[in-house]
Amino acid sequence: SVSLATLGDRLTANRGKQEWEVEVATPLWLPGQRQARQGEVVSSQKEFNAQQLALRLQLAGEVREVWWALAAARSNHALAGVRHTAAQELKSDVDRRWRVGELARMDANLAQVEVLSARADLEEAQSALAQAEQDFRLLTGITPADPLTPETLPAVEPSLDAHPQLLAAAEIGRAHV
Question: How far is it, in rounded angstroms, from Cα 60 to Cα 16?
Answer without folding.
Answer: 73
